[in-house]
Amino acid sequence: MPGNLPAETASFVGREAELARLTGLLDQRRLITLTGVGGVGKSRLALRAAARPGRTRPDGVWWVELSPLRDPGLLTTTLAHTLGLTLGLASPDAHSLDEELCAWMADKSLLIVLDTCEHLVTPVRHLVGELLQSAPGLTVLVTSRERLGSPGETVVEVRPLPCEGPDSDAFALFRARALSAAPQTAADLADPARAALAAEVCRRLDGIPLALELAGARLRLWTLERMAHLLSARFEVLSDSTRAALPPRHRTLRTAIGWSHELCEPLERLLWARLSVFTGDFDAAAARTVCAGGPLPASRVERLLEGLVAKSVVRRSWERGSGPRYRMLDTVREFGQDWLAELDEVRAVADRHAHWYAALARTAEQGWMGPQQVDWYRRMSTEHAQLRTALEHLLGADPEAALEMAGALWFFWFSCGHLREGRGFLERALAQAEPTGAAHARALWALGLTMLLQGDMGAARLTGIACVRAAEALDDPEERLRAAYLRSVSLLMPGDPVRALALAGPPARTAHGGAGSGAGALLCQLVSAYALCDLGRFEEAAEEARGLREACVERGERWLRAYADYVLAFAALGLGQYGEAARHVRAMLSGKRLLGDRFGIAIGLDLLAAAVAALGDGELAARLLGNGHAWWRTVGRPQMGSPSLTALRDLGERQARAAIGDAAYETAFRCGAAAPTG
Questions:
Q1: Fewest Cβ atoms closer than 10 Å to its Cβ: which of 53, 112, 301, 373?
Q2: How many angstroms separate the first and last alpha carbons of the chain?
Q3: Between 411 and 232, where is the model more confident?
Q4: What secondary structure letter does DSSP report for 282?
Q5: Residue pair 265/307 in contact by the 8 Å Cβ criterion
Q6: pLDDT tier, 612 (very low <50, low <70, confident <90, very high otherwise)
């Protein structure tokens, strides 16, 4: 079954009745909101219910983590990207994005879990309302400290664990965490008197799971007696203003976190505060660079980080094929943010965080057109939340650095499906920074790329003209070639291959000084090959594409190489070499699937359908066209409105219908359209 449910990284104890009730509600109601104080276990309960065996949804169970999201305008694109969709190709307008998502979901049966929504209640309420109205097969499960207030919403308050005595769920969770942190405590907790003392600790902590875990982790350093004494003292010294300002359970959790904070070493407390700048998860290298300074040397950060993991302040997970990743629960991170403000380090640490990820963006850009391209695709997708946080900070603190970073991330916006977000950041940065220099030219180019794939050809043409002017002022062949690519594609896609070829063909590349193999020269070579195909000059197109493919192979590059395979397939089709066309396009699709390039997969399936239809296999062609239709729905505008792409797709359909008849075609098409696109 499709989906992306995360692995459970924390203990799940008790809650049988709540789990049974929630399971029933998910079968009966369409909008359920789990509410409760921070740290009470809303996310854990939602995850356990969503992952329960026997829960089947043909179109998947999807987990959307909203904690790192601060811009409400990115809510729809965040949800769409989780589902594997690229929206905004038909129109960049926010209302149109909602409509696109509603249209895609209309015939789907799926469960979506929106985790941590309290900071986005209004936009979540609006979007969920539209989706539920449009998609009768959709169920939404929300976790939030505050209800949405939507019509038809079923609210379930997640209460603390029962905490009366050693047989309670709270005691069981405390014991499990204590044994994990200090296995030698097993004998202590088996003694009735000491078990009663531990149960009293659980009662004082109100049965709040996060508070119990923080306390249980302390048994590796403290006896039960000392823990109980320190906990009592911590409650007693709460100020009257603190007692009045917070409800009892919020007070309990705040007290437990503060108590755990006080029991940390001074450098652990400092690291806790500085780590609060991270949204989502992060790796040890980022923590070393961002959090080191003053009394905290970089050489000690990793050991202290592991200490915070042992104390349940930080959680650790493992990414397949990479090292450990770390994250803080929101409640713990909020405490750290308060402490960071007390230390007057918010700006300094945020600056270090932003510049670390800006440097990562530059490094990734340099490596994108090389052998590590797939690794960079995965790495930058993993770091998405941190990149967004860094850009938001730089837009307010250093617009020039924001412009440079947003432009360096062109490949992330253009090739990895983040068009609307990239366009938003680029437009904001260009509006704030000085309109001169290399960073300005690169950002204009990146903005034009996002406009192209959004189908906003008028804006892309105007931006291309501005980009050409900016590049000419720099006297940099690479920037001139990139600008030429943007201008030529903005003409090619609406159907003007003659002018596109004039701007990107071999004579134009030579005039720009672009005989090398930089990204600009390679991209111009690609658009030149496309234009030659559109003009019916297939042998010349194949020659251009072979040269491009060889250059990509030499660099170890995959994304552009796959498009070279596409042009070779298109040219072979035009020359009547249908088997050769199918071979090339299958190679193209293999490369595009590695990088999750949905636009590339969609156009590749259309071309493969035309090739196999020409070979006489109408049934396979119909299935491919159906699957291509499903992929186009995840992209947005079918065939991008391009006359040549539309003509190719229509050719495949005509030949398939002629081979097997309309009825068989429709049956095979529906079969292909039902195939998964994940």
A1: 53
A2: 10
A3: 411
A4: B
A5: yes
A6: very high
Dihedral of CA 362/278/402/425: which sign?
Answer: positive
Contact between 204 and 224 under an 8 Å Cβ cutoff? The reply is no
Tokens linked to 177: 């965490």
Contact between 188 and 283 under an 8 Å Cβ cutoff? The reply is no
Least confident span in 6-10, 618-622, 644-648: 6-10
- Rounded distance between C-alpha atoms, residue 459 and residue 455, angstroms: 9
Tell me the pLDDT tens digit for each residue of 439-452: 999 999 999 999 98
Please give the residue that has the higher pLDDT: either 90 or 314.
314
Q: How high is the mean pLDDT of the chain?
A: 88
421 and 413 Cβ atoms separated by less than 8 Å: yes
Going across the sheet that includes 110-115, the strands are 61-65, 110-115, 138-143, 31-35, 154-157
Coil, strand, or helix at residue 616?
coil
How far CA 626 is from CA of 5, 39, 205, 289, 661, in Å, comes to 28, 46, 57, 49, 16
Paired strand residues for 470: none
Other beta carbons less than 10 A from residue 319's beta carbon? 13
Please work out, in degrees rounded to the nearest 5, the angle formed at the alpha carbon of residue 43 by the alpha carbons of 40 and 44: 80
Q: What is the dihedral of CA 298, 301, 303, 309, to 10 degrees?
A: -170
Measured CA angle at 551 (ends 549, 554), to 5 deg: 110
Alpha carbon 53 to chain centroid, angstroms:
26
Give CA–CA dist 474/479, Å, rounded: 8
- Token output for 81: 């990207």
What DSSP line would sit under 414-479, residue for residue? HHTT-HHHHHHHHHHHHHHS-S-HHHHHHHHHHHHHHHHHTT-HHHHHHHHHHHHHHHHHHT-HHH
pLDDT digits (tens, 9 = 90+) for 113-149: 999 999 999 999 999 999 999 999 999 999 999 999 9
CA–CA distances in Å: residue 406 to residues 68, 134, 283, 286, 493: 19, 35, 22, 19, 25
pLDDT digits (tens, 9 = 90+) for 61-90: 999 999 999 889 899 989 998 988 876 554
Q: Which residue has the tokens 């057109």?
A: 369
Tally the C-alpha atoms within 13 A of residue 439's C-alpha that lie toward its C-beta. 17
What count of other Cβ atoms lies within 10 Å of the Cβ of residue 276?
Answer: 22
Q: How many CA atoms lie within 13 A of 541 on its CB side?
A: 26
Helix residue ranges per DSSP H, 615-661: 618-635, 643-660
Kindly report, residue by residue over 342-367, the tens digit of the pLDDT: 999 999 999 999 999 999 999 999 99
Q: How far apart are CA 450 and CA 633, in angstroms?
A: 18
Report pLDDT for 243.
39
